[in-house]
Amino acid sequence: MSAITAPFRRTYLYLQRQAHENPVIFYSCVIGAIGPVMAITVPPIRERLGYKPAEMIPATYPIPNRPRRPTQGYEDP
After folding, report:
1. C-alpha dihedral over 36, 38, 43, 45, to 10 degrees?
2. How does the average pLDDT of the chain come out, rounded?
3. pTM of the shown model
4. Degrees (nearest 5) of the Cα angle 17, 20, 37?
């Protein structure tokens, strides 16, 4: 039975040692591994909780339905 769990135990001990000796590298790898998992799991959870995305921001300015009037009072002398 010990032969089955030995690789997992060794992996845990290696990760524990790395967390103590190189914490910056270890925790940056942990955060980097969590990112793709969150990209897959968070959107369905947000939808289940009732999140509705905001309306899209208009890409163009609406032009009024009237003839354009020329500006007056800003001419050069």
Report:
1. 150
2. 89
3. 0.51
4. 80
